[in-house]
Amino acid sequence: MTTSDAPAPTHPGRSRRPVILTTVLPTVLTAVLAGPLGATPAAHADATVMKPKPTAATKPKPAACPSGLAAKAKCYTGRDAHGAYYTMAVPKRWNGSLVVHAHGGPDTSYDASTPTEDLARWAVMVDQGYAWAASSYRRGGYGVRMAAADTENVRRLFVARFGRPSRTYLHGQSWGGNVAAKVAETYGTKRGAYHGMLLTSGNLSGGSRGYDHRVDLRVVYQYYCRNLPRPTERQYPLWQGLPAGSTLAPDAIHARLQECTGIDSDDRTARQQRNLDDILAVTRIQEKSLKTDLLYATYLFQDIVFKRLDGRNPFGNRGVRYTGSHDDKALNAGVARFSPDPAARRDLSYDSDLTGRVSIPVLSLHAINDPQVFVEQRPTAPRSGPPVATGGSSRRSRRSPSTAN
User: Fold this and answer.
1) Nearest CA to 294 among 348, 237, 250?
2) Quick one: how far is CA 241 from the chain centroid?
3) Average pLDDT estimate for 57-68
4) In the Cβ-directed half-sphere of 162, how many Cα atoms lie within 13 Å?
5) 122 close to 18: Cβ distance less than 8 angstroms
6) Cα angle value 183/186/187 (rounded, 5°)
7) pLDDT digits (tens, 9 = 90+) for 371-390
8) How far apart are CA 297 and CA 14, in angstroms?
């Protein structure tokens, strides 16, 4: 099964319910009005945005609201000119402000239910009187500038249908934090487009650094388990995640993880327990998210390498010293090593990395124990200048600055 038809894991950041926002949302969206933070670079030519005026085909159409909002708001759905599905909600007691939501992921595909499911998860915003709009993105797989363009598209469709809100806020959840921040950098310089941004467990490390821990998991897993691929199967570079024509399904990868670590068993063998202990200790990934991270380190890497970068490698682990195992010397001598193709890394960085130069106020909330987007990937505010992401994974062990990827 290729990336296009193999179901990727649902990102935990999308399924986590936003309980904390029930009480803090009004304060949060007021707080982001504190002041401007900088300038914004120009948009990417390939990240196309619709013309503001919708056509009959793209116009929002009345639709049923999620059950919790049926008596409180009017909802609308549609599909934009690039094929992205969208959902909008306008409260019956609208406060005049709009929240434009960027969802997490990336998943391999999206459909009309995607933004409506997100509306149900983030109904607290509509409960508090804010209108809400979100895009599914025009396709599955990786692409931050693409997703940012589709997020800006849904804002323009809302304005064309309902008029310009008094305030418009961006909200980015998980990987959607990367998308929302890219919206702010790319489209936020237009006067009145956006007035503030809220990030919840946002991944601000970008593609060139944000997946270092999964690169490490991919090679450390293979060192101990040697079953992805097996010695009897066609060998391939681990930075590919999976080879382009792989038919390996997610359930089969889970079965191999179980075979090696007994992750689903209460009565693991001594070998399984030792493998599991070493993998967790070296990568510092939580046991409960090991399966999800391994699926991302296969299918997402496959998507990035073959569908976005023409088979080129943006990942590397040379210069990384792995520690915490029963035998670090053997691990570091035997683990697979590779360096990124500079052009591939440049292209992935251009698509997804952030400058921190935004012209709107930003507030970030993060779950300290988030197993997928760890707290080090939130933005930090230096004493002077714009906020920046901390850059990279805290899971990397004793990286040498001269050889860091």
Assistant:
1) 250
2) 17
3) 94
4) 25
5) yes
6) 75
7) 677 666 555 544 344 443 33
8) 18
**Contact assessment for residue 352 and residue 207, using Cβ atoms and an 8 Å cutoff:** yes
The token pair that represents 4 in the structure block: 């296009």
Written as one letter, the residue type at 306 is F
Q: What is the pLDDT of residues 95-135, one digit of tens each?
A: 999 999 999 999 989 999 999 999 999 999 999 999 999 99
Query: pLDDT of 220-271, one tens digit each?
Result: 999 999 999 999 999 999 999 999 989 999 999 999 999 999 999 999 999 9
pTM of the model: 0.83
Given a contact cutoff of 8 angstroms between Cβ atoms, the answer to whether 40 and 357 are in contact is yes
Please compute Rg for the chain using Cα positions.
22
Tokens read off for 20: 């904390």
The tokens describing 214, both together, are: 């999964």
Where residue 287 falls among pLDDT bands split at 50, 70, 90? very high
Q: What is the pLDDT of residue 392?
A: 38
Q: Please, which residues bridge with residue 196 across strands?
A: 169
Quote the mean pLDDT of the chain: 84
Residue 377 pLDDT = 59
Three-state SS sequence of the chain: CCCCCCCCCCCHHHHCCCCCHHHHHHHHHHHCCCCCCCCCCCCCCCCCCCCCCCCCCCCCEEECCCHHHCCCEEEEEEECCCCCEEEEEEECCCCCEEEEEECCCCCCCCCCHHHHHHHHHCHHHHHCCCEEEEECCCCCCCCHHHHHHHHHHHHHHHHHHHCCCCEEEEEEECHHHHHHHHHHHHHCCCCCCCCEEEEECCCCCCCCCCCHHHHHHHHHHHHHHCCCCCCCCCCCCHHHCCCCCCCCCHHHHHHHHHHHHCCCCCCCCHHHHHHHHHHHHHHCCCHHHHHHHHHHHHHHHHHHHHHHCCCCCCCCCCCCCCCCCCCHHHHHHHCCCCCCCHHHHHHHHHHHCCCCCCCCCEEEECCCCCCCCCHHHCEECCCCCCCEECCCCCCCCCCCCCCCC
Residues 6+ apart with CB under 8 A from 373: 13, 174, 175, 177, 201, 202, 203, 366
